[in-house]
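[recover] target loaded
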């Protein structure tokens, strides 16, 4: 198991807790600390603290350097987005190198409450509002149900050293404004238990999401077919119109979303609705032009999603 440790209280608590049970759970741990290149004055101390803990706990220690600002500028991403992408990319590479099955990160119950509010402001659907999962593919979040205050008390009782990230106080970042301004305001003026309420809502939505995911998988079997062009070897996806139109509208949207993801396309809500509308009443031999050369051909019995000219923009038509 790779343990992502920044040197902050959450990840330091995670490291020590996992180290305490590694024999009982037969865990093989590797500590990874990454320099994002954003706080050069603080990095040496944080690396020292994490490296020292790893040495005391007798756990292998790996470091990495990330060019967050360069990637953010090149890919037109926010600093937060670029940092997250780079961080997980390196963590997964380390996990592959040491044959670790998963990556442990230090997200807490407080992080969950913040994340739900952030996703709500971004207009996320049910899946997004179900929050982060304890286990998500190769990521595990052992502290997701633990309050940060509890972790701080645990660290203090044991005299475990940790660092405080000064950027966590910078209000130019939306997440910091949610944590430092919005949540305290809601607690003081509306509901002192707002964090717990948000987590309860996320848990409830996660259960609903699990059911919908199972129904979607079953629907995919009934309404989706794949076809390969013998001449070009290009694979297309067919949506059978009659059984698709019998699905509940919520399942229709989810099926289309899954298909777009499978095609490597953007699953935007506007594109999803266009495809649903085409299935319901699209004229035979008409077509939809989506992003990066994705075409949706409308036939009497099915819709066909394909990249006739490859994954690149083009002006051609399926039907002359």
């Amino acid at each position: 198991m790779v343990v992502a440790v920044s040197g902050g209280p959450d990840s330091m608590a995670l490291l020590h807790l996992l180290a305490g049970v590694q024999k009982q759970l037969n865990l093989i741990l590797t500590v990874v600390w990454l320099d994002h290149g954003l706080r050069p004055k603080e990095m040496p101390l944080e690396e020292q603290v994490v490296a020292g803990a790893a040495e005391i706990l007798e756990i292998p220690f790996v470091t990495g350097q990330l060019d967050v600002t360069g990637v953010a500028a090149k890919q037109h991403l926010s600093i937060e987005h670029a940092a997250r992408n780079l961080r997980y990319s390196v963590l997964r590479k380390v996990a592959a190198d040491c044959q670790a099955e998963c990556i442990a990160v230090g997200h807490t119950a407080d992080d969950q409450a913040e994340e739900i509010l952030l996703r709500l402001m971004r207009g996320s659907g049910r899946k997004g509002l179900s929050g982060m999962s304890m286990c998500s593919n190769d990521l595990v979040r052992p502290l997701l149900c633990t309050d940060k205050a509890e972790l701080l008390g645990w660290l203090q009782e044991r005299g475990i050293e940790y660092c405080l990230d000064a950027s966590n106080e910078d209000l130019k970042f939306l997440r910091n404004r949610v944590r430092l301004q919005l949540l305290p305001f809601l607690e003081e003026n509306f509901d002192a238990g707002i964090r717990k309420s948000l987590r309860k809502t996320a848990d409830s939505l996660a259960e609903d999401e699990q059911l919908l995911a199972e129904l979607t998988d079953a629907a995919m079997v009934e309404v989706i077919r794949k076809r390969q062009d013998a001449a070009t070897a290009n694979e297309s996806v067919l949506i059978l119109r009659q059984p698709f139109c019998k699905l509940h509208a919520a399942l229709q949207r989810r099926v289309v979303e899954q298909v777009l993801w499978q095609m490597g396309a953007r699953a935007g809500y506007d594109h999803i609705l266009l495809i649903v509308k085409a299935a319901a009443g699209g004229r035979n031999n008409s077509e939809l032009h989506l992003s990066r050369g994705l075409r949706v051909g409308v036939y009497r019995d099915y819709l066909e999603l394909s990249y006739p000219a490859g994954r690149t923009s083009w002006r051609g038509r399926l039907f002359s």
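[recover] notes: The mean pLDDT is 92.
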